[in-house]
Amino acid sequence: xxxxxxxLPVEFLFTMKVxxxxxxxxxxxxxxxxxxxxxxxxxxxxxxxxxTVLPGGGDWxxxxxxxxxxxxxxxxxxxxxxxxxxxxxxxxxxPDMVARSAPLFQASHESYRWLNNVQAIGIGxxxxxxxxYDVYAVL
Length: 139
Prior knowledge:
- It contains no helices and nine strands.
- Strands 1, 2, 3, 4, 5, 6, 7, 8 and 9 form a nine-stranded antiparallel sheet that branches.
- The chain has strands at residues 10-29, 32-45, 51-53, 58-63, 69-79, 84-93, 99-107, 120-126, 130-138.
- It has a single domain (10-138), classed as Porin (Beta Barrel), CATH 2.40.160.20.
- 29% of the residues are buried.
- A hairpin with a 3-residue loop joins β8 and β9 (130-138).
């Protein structure tokens, strides 16, 4: 493996827009302050996966002393053909307000089992009411 790799081969999977109900602060916990962000729905559109984000997921963000946020997210996707996929990811919300994440998937439907073997990366842009991620499979 070359130490001078400057890019990774990826395949675009989908864009995910997650609607949220804002956030609930949990200040001064043993690991730092937390922000609980509740998922209220959303959409997934792409060449490999399309559907909706089901209500009920969330992000349990840990705010670090340097102002960055450590993401801890779980969302459920229902595809256009009725499959249900769990998407979990951790990552960093940087001071530039860009969320960089590493999604993993759990799928049992035969059309989406291939996702179980994918390490994805996501680049997200949050607002107060939603976050939009472009999600790619690392090849």
